Amino acid sequence: MKNILKVQGILLAILLVIAVPGNALASGSSSIATNAQTYLEYMGEHLKDSSASPTDNSMGNGKVHGQTKRWIRSTLREIGVDSRYIYEQNFNTQKDTTGVISAPWGHHVFFKGSNIEVTLKGKDPSKQIIVSAHYDGSGYSNNASGVALMLAQIKELVDKKSPHAVKLPYTVKFVFFDIEQFNKGSEYYAKKMTAADKKNTLFILNIDNIARGDYPNVYGGITDPNNNSVVHTEAYKLAVSKALELGINVFDTEALDGYYNTHGKGPEISENTIYTNPWTSSNPSPGVKYSVLSPSNGISRSHMLFVEAGIPYASFEASNWFAKSMDGTLFEAENDGLISDVMRDFYISGGKEHDTMKILEAYFPGRSLAHYDVYGPLLNKMLMEPDIKILRPSQ
């Protein structure tokens, strides 16, 4: 197995040099975007289902999950990350996290997980940023797409010829969460953070399922139902600010507030554009009352631990808030378009059998790269130029 993985790592290194997709070169995509696309295609071909398996092996795909973890580590070393800055945080959901996990047929199961943390030092190590993506997904978009973008961003920041060169203004920790389909990796990571870690973290950005949804969205903040408002939006404001500096078109809360009521549909899906949750207290979704307001999105209890620690939260995730169900009401899906006579959309048809490279490229050719063309430069800009005045306005 080790020899096979070594050969795969060598082949991937060759691919990253000579096998950049032709449409990537033609479109003038950034190196982050093209590298992310190459990593994604590799995972789509060789690591198709990385869902974790519990200790009784009653569900998931433990074999590929283990291969994915080893591939991430070997890819990090190939990129040039010093092994001293790659940390594996092991945990057991039975004793290290809260709540129980039930298998589909009712009995309780537990997992042994491993978060992978990569630390890239900044010029000012007194502050840090966390970027996260889970690697225990079951499909191409969920969440090979997030893993691929994180790896591409790390590759952008690491100079193999000068591995100790410091490019970042502040330290960045890239965390590949495990057992995150059950929100356990992030829970354990948040609980293990020290008081100083929490105080010194400027923001956390989570990347999940960004390849196949219709709109490349950016979310941020947390809905406060008591005051009918959204709080802790600093990281989202940073994303919008950096997007505008990059020349990326932005459909933010102000632009989307009332858009559906006026036009009867969502905005056209355009290149080089980011979107967000369109629903506000003054213009809620017709037919369905969402518990989250723009620019926030639903956030897991485990990720709330970061917010409760005072850390601004933002996320990248592609979806469609204007998808129509069979009765005509709107709901948040991944795609709103007929992809066959039977399946209304990927979300309703659901499941890992539809989240594949073959299906995505068949129905939405070039979509993953188009999303990387937006998310890649934006992520890099947020890490290279985090504006303290936006993130900590009181300082």
Please characterize this protein's 3D structure:
The protein is α/β, with parallel strands linked by helices and 395 residues long. The chain has 16 helices and 14 strands. Strands 1, 4, 5, 6, 7, 8, 13 and 14 form an eight-stranded mixed β-sheet that branches. The termini are far apart.
> Which H/E pattern describes the elements?
HHHHEHEEEEHEHHEEEEHEHHEHEEHHHH
Distance between the termini: 52 Å
Q: Radius of gyration, rounded?
A: 20 Å
Q: What's the number of extended β-strand segments? A: 14
- Mean of residue pLDDT values: 87
Strand content: 15-25%
Count of DSSP H/I helices = 16
What percent of the residues sit in helical stretches (DSSP H or I)? 25-40%
- What would you call the structural class? alpha/beta
> What is the makeup of the main sheet?
8 strands, mixed
* Poorly predicted ranges: 1-26, 338-350
Structural shape: globular
